[in-house]
Amino acid sequence: MRKIRMLACILGLVILSSTGYAYILTFDDFPPGISFMLPYFNAYHIGVYGFAIADHSSSSWGPPHSGNNVLGYYPSNQFISFKGPSGPMYTNSISSYFSTEIDTVLRIEAYDFLEHNLIATAQIGATGEAWNNRYVEIAPPGGGMYNIYFRPVSSYDAALHFSLDDLTVDPVYVPEPSSLVAL
């Protein structure tokens, strides 16, 4: 009976430590122009690099999906990464509402943590089209996305002409092995 209880406790800890809860980041809690690592989820962090908060409430393209602010271009390599309180964190899915100017095309590339392998891709924008808050989700079958990169496709400066709002992530904390040994 003691072994069954111990097994149930270990299973419960593994399930609780690996189950994510989706969070929506609206970017309206920050003033426009800020570019930094956005600390969310108490001990969890989403590193948003190469972007800046922009007020798009009166923009000629890319109106916000909610509030006034969106995440837009900042002159740098654009990517999003995940980190937990004492180690790596990954996400099972990521989604957002994307807006682009006409003829702007980018590719989202998702990489895993352990091997840095490309595990999923998606396209933002299309030739001859302008997107206004088009919903895009990436959710590879095995989950485990650690870094998400945004790569220009239509032109070198394509990153200047897109924005995202209401970024939703499903974070999963990877527990330290010592957490399981404690049981």
Briefly, what is this?
Helix content is 12%, strand content 40%.
Description:
This protein has 183 residues and is mainly β. 12% of the residues lie in helices and 40% in strands. Strand 7 (106-112) and strand 8 (118-124) form a beta hairpin. Mean pLDDT is 76; it is low at 1-19 and 39-43.
Describe how the helices and strands are arranged.
Elements: H1 2-18, E1 23-25, E2 45-49, E3 51-55, E4 69-73, E5 79-83, E6 89-100, E7 106-112, E8 118-124, E9 134-138, E10 145-152, E11 162-173, H2 177-181
Antiparallel strand pairs: 1-11, 2-5, 3-4, 5-10, 6-9, 6-11, 7-8, 7-10
Strand order in the largest sheet: 2-5-10-7-8
Largest sheet: 5 strands, antiparallel
| Share in β-strands | 35-45%
Structural class: mainly beta
List keywords for this structure.
183 residues; 5-stranded antiparallel β-sheet; 11 strands; 40% strand; globular
